[in-house]
Every structure is written in structure tokens, then in C-alpha cells.
Amino acid sequence: MKLLTVSPSPHIKGDESVKKIMYGVVLSLIPALIASTFFFGWQALMITAVSVASCVIFEHLFQRYLLKGESTIQDGSAVITGLLLAFNVPSSLPIWLVILGALIAIGVGKMTFGGLGQNLFNPVLVGRVFLLISFPVQMTSWSANSAVDAFSGATPLGVLKEGLKSGQSVSQLLPNLPTNFDLFYGSMTGSLGEISAVALLIGGLFMLYKKIITWHIPVAVLGSMFILQGILYLVDPELYINPLFHILSGGAMLGAIYMATDMVTSPMSVKGQLIYGAAIGIITICIRNFGAYPEGISFAILIMNAVVPLINNYVKPTRFGGQA
Amino acid sequence: MLKTFKIGGIHPAENKLSANASIQALAIPKTVYIPMAQHIGAPATPLVKKGDMVKVGQMIGKASGFVSANIHSSVSGKVKKIDQILDSSGYKKDVVVVDVDGDEWEETIDRSSDLVKEITMTQDEIKARIAEAGIVGLGGATFPTHIKLSPPPGNTAEVLVINAVECEPYLTADHQIMLEKGEEIMVGVSILMKGIGVSKAIIGIENNKKDAIDHFKKLAKAYEGIEITPLKVQYPQGGEKQLIAATIGKEVPSGALPIAVGAVVNNVATAYAVYEAVQKNKPLFERVVTVTGKSVSKPCNLLVRGGTPIQDLIDEAGGLPEDTGKVISGGPMMGKAVVNLEIPSAKGTSGILIMQDTESAREKMDACIRCSKCVKACPMGIEPYLLMSLAEKSMWEQSENRNVMDCIECGSCSFTCPSNRPLLDYIRLGKGTVGQIIRSRRS
């Protein structure tokens, strides 16, 4: 008789796989890619293609020749890094900077820690923040969004920040800002992937449906932003704009749905995820209102990435039949 | 909303291929190998020797020690020898080998199919009879039933919870016995209630067995204090602690027994065995076993005499398929892969699952992507990913602090892991080692 396999239970496995998760995320980014192409034209597609190709190639090279291991590009994680990196830069960014960003994202953000699953910080944000700090001019030169010529030059958050700094009140600035509907639809200036809240929401719902993410982190990020900004708004609506504007503008949606939910760099327990998400929202609102940058979610996420090991250590899941 | 437990859980494909197969008695084999250890605890001591003649239902193994159960012969014939063979645990165990000769039963056993409704025994008589009949939990854990009927001092039972969940994919033995032996089960539940001294019983059934739920709801009207609770289909609903949480909404504290929240849990097939033992004077020596698998030509539910080699069960289901990779005693989530097909069936054998080569191969392990699916799937609220790394690094103190001993080995974590990480394998290693450390600390 032929030999039987003997192995411990369980003897069956669900149909989840790393590849399936990663390509699920890629699929969910398609609406945002379409939106960015629609608003910024072929330039957007070009940047995205270069970013994805660079990330995949760099990952292959690092994996094979630096870590001397098997190439892991087929798992799809480098494709996501490439897509999201492109979504985090302006459409007018010089191509060589896109490639440099990809090198930093994969090389410094991911491979120095040992590759997939090991990195402490979100590789995309490592790449993005590197570019933002090193090349601030190129990273904040916004080319015209075909839908809103009037706002080329500065993002809504930038207009708001500059205006408030020069002593104008929110009600004086509002006519110069896109409406909440414009923000929701995508009629604003900004990075490739962050402009259309509706496209990002569709992608987020798809990921929820596919159980790639759960609601906890995005809701905690956007919810805490909304509540904190809401309080500020109630305190002084002339100094602090309405909370809906904040969650629809800048990188809030992209950050809450795609960057903060990065599995590798977010906490493992549900309670931990809620704490992590809420902290990101609070830090973001603080930077946006009181900091030097008009935007802040990238910094907020990176700061909280550093706190994740602590959260994992101290915030345990709810234990059955007892305390955590 | 259907009731269920609150933390974790998964939903594997059900694959109940034998769902409509009525129970058929398997022919008695020429030789049976009756294990002396068909329960958790100390093996029974053989009462017979080579050359003895035995009858069906005759006690041939005496319980030895507090946690132990009697063993009865499932056939009549001559004791060939007392030997040691591998059982489903993979270890050699004592077996009484009987060469079958006819089918002569002990005269005291009522073999008629008449339903005996009236319960004449007192509480103590019921307990004694259940112990005498060697009844153990038939859900798979095989804990001796009579011990459950006598709560430790300081605890009182308030409710009997009957586990009719059958949440393991593929298995249908309990489902079928509910459809065919419903009245007997109701009487068995009433006997258990009397034996434990409670006035309330809840039968929890997963909602994928609607016919059984309807059938039981109708029957229960005629019985005092028996309630049917349909449950959401969610694995591991049949876990004792999960079932209690789902049915009475109380969580058994970590490290405690169900009695700590006033509950006693028994399997539905156990209730049937109790009926037979108390009303028909029939000890536990046969049970219903599901024989199934995707390539199996006749998935079926068989009434099997204890000690029958599982090869015979497989032959009845159409033989071992060409593409067999693994044979499992029990269900796919918690069952044990067997080493060979000479292994005898026992009281705890709820199913024989034949898996194809392709199904039984383990996939290549990838890096942990920290997706936290294992944490969300864990019904005990522990952290499988972390316990695996702690076990890999032999960090036992941290494993203990992270509640490794709470693991019920349901396998939800390994099932759900997209990186194919053998989480439960490592957690078992952790549990074993931490358990030893705890025991040595106590002594």
C-alpha cells in the first residue's frame, strides 16, 4: 500500500494566500488610478508605470544580490509599493525623482529590515517623506488638474494654511477653496492618488468586502480626525475649518484607507488598531492646524509605525473568559 | 439574529457529503481489536485472557483510576490474544483481540427497538449505570461521562448544554442520529438532566441542520425543560467553551471547567448512548461513524462495532480511492491522521475522512505579513503569530504570559493563515513545554 501522509491538524486550509491579498489590493487601486489618469492625463499613468517598474526591479536586485535570497517580486507587495508611491507624489514630479523614491522605499524602507513582513515603517511613506524633505520644491509643485485650473499651484490645504497664516479668516478663504463635493469627486489639486475620495472609498469598500482590511483602522483615523476637528470648529469656526473638509482633502483618505492599514506596520489586535488609528487622526489634525506643513498624515502614520511594537506588547486582544 | 460565540471563529467549507445517508449497520468483522484506552485518562485493565469466550456487551476491561472508563466487548467469540497495536494517536496501546463467532448478546440487554420513555432509576442509579456502561463523550474528546455528572464540591450545575453542533466539516454522524433517533435522544437528555440534578437543558444545533432543528423542536414540546437553540454556522461552535458562550451567554474563565458557570456539556450522541445504557441496559460498544471524502464513492454513516479495523469502514464506503493522500480519524480541523488502516475504530471515532493527495499536501510557508487574521480568528483571544515566534525562539516564560495554555487547538489560526504558517504546530510545542514547566513548578 502506498504511504499515507501523517501530519498534525488542521488538515484543511482556507483559500487565503499572500498573493491573493496583495493582488486584491492592486485591484482595489484601479478606481484611483483611473481617477488620477482622468484628472492628470497620461503623465499620471507614466509616473505610475515608472514607479511600479522601479519598485519591482529594485526589490528583485536587492533580494537576489544583497540579501542573496529568492526573489520575492511575484508576491505582489512591490507592485503595491510602486502604485502607492506614485499616488503619493505630484503629477509633475521629474521621473528621476520617482525612481529615487522607489529606491529609498524598497531599499531603505523594506529591504534593510529583511524584506516583506519585517519592516518597521511603511516603505511607501519612507520613500515619500524622503522625497518631501529632500526635494520640497519638486514635491510641492502641483500641475493643473484638468478639472480645476483655478487651483493649480497649491493644494486646498496649502491655500488654507497660507491664508490663515496671512491673517485671513476661514469664511474669507472659503470662496477660494473647493466645496466638499468637489473634494469628494476629485476636483482639487494634489498628489496623483489622493484627489478623488470617491475612488478611494470604492477601493476601500472592495478591500473590506474581500476581507483584506477591516473597518477598524480607517474608521479610527477618519473618525478621530472628524471629532477633533469638529471640536476645534465648534470652538472657533473662523480659525478652524469644518471637519468634513479635513477628512476629504489632502492625503486623509489615501492615508486612512491604504497607508495606515498596511498590514506589516499596523498593530495585530483590534484594540491596538483602534488606538493606532485614533492616534494617527489626532496627530494629523494637530500637524495640519498647528504645524509647519499643511499636510500631516504621512508623518502621523510614520510616527505611529514606530509605536506599533509597543502597542503589540501592551495591548493584548480580548481574552476569552478573562482579562486581557 | 442567530446565537453564536463572540470572539474569533472561521467558516470552512462544509462538505457534508454524507448528509442524506441513513445509518446502516456495518457487517461484523471476523476479528476485532478492542482498545483498552478508548477514553481520556488511565486505560482500562483487561478482565479476560486468551481463550476466554465473550458475549456482546460483556465487560472485558475495568476502569482503573478516577478518570477512566469500562470497556465492553462489541462482538461474541473467543479471545485470541491480548496484544499491543498502534491506535489513532500513533502510539502502541493494549488491545483485546477477539475472533468473532456468531453474534450472541448478553441476555440483560434489551435489543428491541421499543421506545422506553419512563425513567425509573434514581439519580444515583443513573450515575452508577452510566459509569458501568463505559460511556464517554462521543464528540471526540472521550472524557468519561460519569465524572461530569458529579460536580466537584462547591459547584452546582444549573443547566445541561447538549452539543448537537457538529461543526467539523464533512462529519454527519450526529446529524443523522438526530434525525433517526430523536425520541431516544430526548429521553437520554432527560436522563442526563435527572442524573445531574438540573431542570433545564439547552440543545445547541448549527443552522446548517434545519431538518434536525425542526424535528427536535417538535419533539421537545413533549419533554419538560428541554429547549432547542439554533446557532449560527461558525467554527469552532462545538468547542465546549464556545458552545456555552453561544447558548447561555457566559464565558468559562480561563483554566476553569464549565461547571464554574453552572453548565455541564454533553454531546448529542452521548445522550443517545445514555438512553441505551439506562433504558436498554446496553453498554457503549458501538457508535455511528461518518466515512467520507471527496473521492470516496459512497460517503456514508455507519453503525460500527468498536474495534473494527478502519479498513473495513473504508471498504463499505467503496474502498480507498486511488488518489488518497491522507486518512484522518475525526474531522479535518481536529482529527488525527492515521498511520495505517489496521487501526481499530473506538468510542471516540466520529468519522473517517479520506483526503486526496492534492488536499493533504501542505503548501510552502511564506513570511508572516502580520495580517492579524490569526488573531481575529482565534476563539480564545490569544495571539497565534506571536506564540509561534515565541516557540521558535524557546521563549517559554513569555509564551505562558501570553496565555498559550488557553489554546483549545481548534486550528482556526493555521486554517486562516495566508502565508501557510504552521501556527498550531508551534503552539502545541509551546503548550506542551509550558505545561511541563507549570507541573514541575507545582511539584
Give the tags.
heterodimer, A: 324 residues, mainly alpha, 16 helices, 60% helix, B: 443 residues, alpha/beta, four-stranded antiparallel beta sheet, globular
Explain what this protein looks like in three dimensions.
- The complex is a heterodimer of chains A (324) and B (443).
- Chain A has 324 residues and is an all-alpha fold.
- In chain A, 60% of the residues lie in helices and 0% in strands.
- Chain A has helices spanning 18-28, 30-40, 42-66, 77-87, 95-110, 123-134, 136-139, 156-165, 170-173, 180-185, 197-209, 216-235, 243-248, 252-259, 270-290, 297-314.
- The longest helix of chain A has 25 residues, at 42-66.
- The radius of gyration of chain A is 21 Å and the shape is globular.
- Chain B is α/β, with parallel strands linked by helices and 443 residues long.
- Chain B contains 14 helices and 17 strands.
- Chain B has helices at 123-132, 145-148, 173-180, 182-196, 210-220, 240-248, 268-280, 310-316, 357-360, 373-377, 384-392, 396-401, 412-416, 423-442, and strands at residues 23-25, 31-35, 45-46, 53-54, 59-62, 71-72, 77-86, 92-100, 159-164, 201-206, 226-231, 263-267, 286-292, 300-305, 324-329, 336-337, 351-356.
- In chain B, the strands form 4 sheets. A 6-stranded mixed beta sheet of chain B has the order 1-14-13-17-15-16. In chain B, strands 2-8-7-4 form a 4-stranded antiparallel beta sheet, with no helix packed on it.
- At the A-B interface, helix 1 of A face strand 15, strand 16, helix 10, helix 13 and helix 14 of B.
